[in-house]
Design a protein that fits this description.
The protein is of the alpha+beta class and 66 residues long. Helices cover 23% and strands 18% of the residues. It is built from two helices and three strands, in the order αββαβ. Strands 2-1-3 form a three-stranded antiparallel sheet. A hairpin with a 6-residue loop joins β1 and β2. It is globular and about 50 Å long. The model has no long low-confidence stretch (mean pLDDT 75).
Length: 66
């Protein structure tokens, strides 16, 4: 369904606003584990956006989110 531009703008204005960033550091990152060797690292959401999925330095395979 196509909405007129004025209705789209009203919809955007009603979206909730985030007033503060999370204070807990663990809320901004997740643990990732190598499926082969079991090595675990913390990888932030910011790193996930810029770098992508972490790769195990020992096994050279994609790590999985824990």
């Amino acid at each position: 369904m196509e909405w007129p531009a004025s209705e789209l703008m009203v919809a955007y204005e009603n979206w909730p606003i985030v007033k503060a960033a999370p204070t807990d550091a663990s809320a901004c990152s997740r643990q990732w584990k190598c499926p082969d060797c079991g090595k675990v690292i913390d990888h932030s959401y910011e790193d996930l956006v810029h770098v992508g999925i972490p790769i195990c330095g020992d096994c050279e395979i994609d790590m999985e989110m824990v």
